[in-house]
Amino acid sequence: MDVTEDALLRSGFTQSDLQKIKNNVESYGGTLGNAIRDLARRFILALWVVSGCLAVFIFLVIFASEESVFSGAIGLSCGVAVAIFIQPPVLAYKAWRFCRANKDPVHDSV
Question: CA-CA distance, 58 to 23, in Å (whole number)?
Answer without folding.
Answer: 41
